[in-house]
Every structure is written in C-alpha cells, then in structure tokens.
Amino acid sequence: MALIELKNLAHSYHPHPAGENDYALRRMNHSWQDGRAYALLGPSGCGKTTLLNIISGLQKPSEGQVLFDGLEVTALPPEQRNIAQVFQFPVIYDTMTVFDNLAFPLRNRGVAVTQVRRRVKEVAEMLELSEVLNKRAANLSADAKQKISLGRGLVRSDVAAILFDEPLTVIDPHLKWSLRRKLKQIHARFKLTMVYVTHDQLEALTFADQVVVMHAGQVVQIGSPQELFETPSHTFVGYFIGSPGMNIMPCRLGVNGVQVEGFEIALEPRLLQAAADAQGNLEVGIRPEFLQLADTARPGGVPVELCTVEDLGTYRIVTVAMGSQQLKIKLDEAVPLPGGSLRVHFPPAWTRLYADSHLVSGDGDE
Ligand SMILES: Nc1ncnc2c1ncn2[C@@H]1O[C@H](COP(=O)(O)OP(=O)(O)OP(=O)(O)O)[C@@H](O)[C@H]1O
Fold first, then answer.
1. For residue 311, how far is its CA from the centre of ligand 1 (angstroms)?
2. How far apart are CA 63 and CA 325, in angstroms?
3. Helices marked H in the chain
4. What was the pLDDT predicted at 362?
5. Ligand 1 atom 31: residue of nearest CA
6. Pocket of ligand 1 (CB under 6 A)
7. pLDDT at 1
8. Whose CA is nearest to atom 14 of ligand 1?
9. Which of 62, 127, 281, 308 is 20 to 30 Å from 167 by CA-CA measure?
10. What's the Cα-to-Cα distance from 260 to each of 89, 122, 266, 282, rounded to whole Å?
11. Residue 188: its pLDDT value, please?
C-alpha cells in the first residue's frame, strides 16, 4: 500500500483555461497516508470523479504531479500503477464462477495456487460469498455481482491503493448498510489504502477514517468524521455535513463575542482576539445539536420565537426565529420543550466563527 501525494495538482477540461472557473479541480497539495481509508465527499460536479480518475491514471491532470510512495506516476496508465478499482456497476466475467472471478487478479499476477485459494476464501467469507463460490456469476443478483466486483478489488494485498467510485449505487438499501460496515472492517483488518468517492455523507462518515470534503473543484477540509462535525473549517462543510446542517448567520464583532441582529453571542476568550484580527465577511456558526433551548428562568441567552417542531422519532427538530434569522435546534425526545417565552443559549465551546467562509481559529494558527 502506498502514500499518495498530490503536488500542485489542478485540472481543466478546457484546452486553454482562462480563469479559475475553467478548472474542474483547482490547485491542491495533499499527502494521503499509507493504509488509511479516505472518502471523497461532495455534491455532484464538485470534481470527485476527476480527482479519482487522476489518481487511477484514467485522466492525466493538466497541471501538477501524482506520486505513489515518492515515485511519480502522473503519466502512467492505470495498468502500470498497481491499483485496484471498483466502479458503480459490476465489472465481472459472467461466464466464470465466483471463485474464478475473485481469483482472476491473483492468477493474472502468477500468485501460487495455495495462496490464491486462501485469499479468495478469506475475501469471500468477509463478503458473504462463500456459499456461491462455485456458481456462475451470470446467474446471480445485481447485489451479488457488485459484491464480486468489490471482492476483485480487495483480493490483492500488494496494490498501492484500492479506488472505489460510488460502489454501492446499485446495492439494495438494506444491504448497503451492512456492506459499508464490512468495508470498514476489511480496512481495519488489512490496512489497505482506500479512496472512496461518494456524494452520500452517511456512506463517507461510516466508511472513512479521513473524509475529504470537496466543493467547486477544491478540497475544503480533510478530517475525521468527528472533526468535520465539531469544527468545520469551511461553511460549506458546516452546511453539507450533518442533518440538518450547521446554523450559520452573518454577524459583526461585539464586545465579548459577536452581534447578530443586535443580540450578543459570546465567543471563547481565545477566539476573541483572532476575531478582532479577522478580515472579510464574518459569520457565526453552531450545530443544531449544540444549541440549547430554555425558558426565561435561565439567565442569559437570546430571545427567540418558536416556529415549528418536527418530531423525528428519537429526536425533534425545533425551528425558532431570532429576529429575521431562523435557527434549527436538535432536541432529544427525552428533553421536554420549554414553555412560555423562549431563549436560545450558544455554548461558547461550540460556537464557531467564519471569515469569508473560512474558520477563524483561536489556536493562533490562523
Ligand atoms: N470529460 C469531461 N469534459 C468536460 N468537462 C467535464 C468532463 N468530466 C467532468 N467534467 C466537468 O468537470 C466538473 C467536475 O466533474 P466530476 O465528474 O469530476 O464531478 P463529481 O463530483 O464526480 O460529480 P458526479 O458525482 O456528478 O460525477 C463538472 O463541472 C463536470 O461537468
């Protein structure tokens, strides 16, 4: 498995790009660690497939380099990159048995018969294909065929990386859940370098230990699911991750924090100085999970009007109006909805500040 480095990488499908908007991928520099599972997550058209194809060699970037373990592979085709790929739709040999399909990538490389058998059995067991190993692939369901495709991707242990392009698209929703978990277990067991493209946040957050969030041809954050949730480094990550997404409101600097429509929202003291130095349009952000709703008996907070309460089983989404702004609050079903006049409290530890969409950090590294 390999360390993947992207150096000054950019790609435009235009022969003569005139400006940033002509780039499907804007200039980026990243190192993706050996043995980790990365998910490329973002909405349609943000450049995920372009980036995956550049890593696999299906697409040559118009600028920059791709390195595997320090060796440049930018101009090499996929077959010379020692990678495995799994696509949206099954790529298998219908006339072969499941065993022969799984064995194919190993036999192709002259792996010894006993080793082929051992590895095929191991992968088949993990993907629950053991029962059908001797059946012809042609007679199986679409789900089973895609599992074979996944197995063919996972069967070699000597590949630099395994690249997945929305591999669970054709899978039945019920099975999707178990396959996502399986892939995670397989990763934990074999420590494979995996890059997985998806537009589904649940898929990315369950599968990956590092999620690469993309927006308009740029990587806006690489982090663990927890980091993306707790400290989105870009407002796009705040909106895109979480359900509902982060509450984000325009604000200006106040005395002990920021002001939104004349109401003061406190910031942590270490963030205050950075806030004073920040340039650009300021916005304050907080996740619906961290806002607290109270009645007037609790001192402090910002007065709000109740708009709607959506009951979603184990929790409720409460929408309140704070002046002309609307805020979403996620309340556990066990927490009673306060009555009378309502106030919302913004815990400073969970209140984030953004300048021109980028996180203002109070850690002195901004
Ligand atoms: N072969 C191509 N020629 C010209 N433009 C392209 C080509 N392939 C992709 N694009 C454009 O590049 C941008 C990024 O596309 P890409 O397919 O990489 O995004 P994506 O995030 O994978 O989206 P999706 O999930 O819809 O596949 C889009 O604006 C797309 O229209």
1. 38
2. 43
3. 48-56, 98-107, 113-126, 142-154, 173-190, 201-207, 225-230, 235-240, 269-277
4. 78
5. 45
6. 13, 24, 42, 44-50, 199
7. 64
8. 47
9. 62
10. 49, 58, 11, 10
11. 86
Q: What angle do CA 322, 326, 328 make, to 5 degrees?
A: 110
- On the CB side of 83, how many CA atoms lie within 13 Å of its CA? 30
Q: Which of 50, 55, 197, 220 to mutate to test the pocket of ligand 1 (most atoms within 8 A of CB)?
A: 50
Which ligand 1 atom minimizes the distance to the CA of 43?
21
DSSP 219-255: EEEEE-HHHHHH--SBHHHHHHSSSS--EEEE-EE-S
CB distance 304 to 327 below 8 Å: yes
Q: Which domains does the chain possess?
A: 4-236 (3.40.50.300), 247-359 (2.40.50.140)
Atom of ligand 1 nearest to the CA of 49: 22
User: What is the pairing mode between strands 4-11 and 263-266?
Assistant: unpaired
Question: What are the percentages of helix, strand and coil residues in the chain, rounded to 5?
Answer: 30, 30, 40
Give the pLDDT confidence of 161-213 residue by residue, as tens digits.
Answer: 999 999 998 888 888 888 888 888 888 888 889 999 999 998 999 889 999 99
Atom of ligand 1 nearest to the CA of 53: 18
* Residue nearest ligand 1's atom 12 by CA: 24
CA of 33 to the centre of ligand 1 (A): 26
Q: Which residues of the chain have pLDDT under 50?
A: 365-366
> Of 159, 217, 216, 218, whose CA–CA distance to 2 is shortest?
159
Tell the residue nearest (CA) to atom 18 of ligand 1.
Answer: 47
Amino acid code (one letter) for 356: D
What pLDDT sits at residue 366? 42
- Radius of gyration of the chain from its Cα atoms, rounded to whole angstroms: 24
**Residue 364's pLDDT is what?**
58
Structure-token match 């996972």, residue found: 154
| Tokens matching residue 67 | 């390195």
- Angle, helix 142-154 to helix 98-107, in steps of 10 degrees: 20
